[in-house]
Amino acid sequence: MFFWAGQCDVLAKAVGNDRRQQNYSIQTAANMMAAMAILGWKEAVIHQGYLTHAALNRGHQLVIEYEEEHRRAQAFMLRVFADWVGDVSHQWPAYAYDEPIYEALLAKWRTPSPDDLMPCLLAACDRHTWQTGKESQKNSYDFNQDWHLERVPVEILYILRLREWEGLANPQKIDHPLLAAPFDQLPPEHPVPELDELMQGVLKRAREDWPQYDEVLSLPALKS
Fold it and tell me: Domain segments of the chain: what residues?
């Protein structure tokens, strides 16, 4: 979506139209990034995090989702990513900073002591349980039924994986119903699957039609 939004912007500017394409979902992007971390796909997490910040900083995010639905958990995960890599940021709307549970966890996620981290993790687990439900025009939930994350502590496991990559010890056990098996521990890291024939064909065609495809999506370009 990021690539197509950027190309549409180029075409629009060529005919004197400054309207930006806004088709990038931060909920989808952040959830995918966290899932990649849980699987142990470190390079993919890094690319996804920078790509999402590039989309945000270039104004490609979905307006209603970004301005009205207030996906605090997803904003939190992206802010943790920015803190982790240290060389990217985004100026979020005020709602991204108004959840004390996440502010405390963001401040302490690198603490060497698992015991010091535990109260923050338990509070985040509690928040997860009351931020689940079915989306409607009146109600938005960070972990809604559309993503089937009501019982998946994606943001907790994401933090634990980042700590593992940083060489920090994690709690042996988090005593909360959300962290019941199979989510009571991080899974072993898995290799990124090889692209199947269909995906290889799609990428081949994309690169033929848009020779700049890889350059636009390269890490240096996303960081610029």
Answer: 2-196
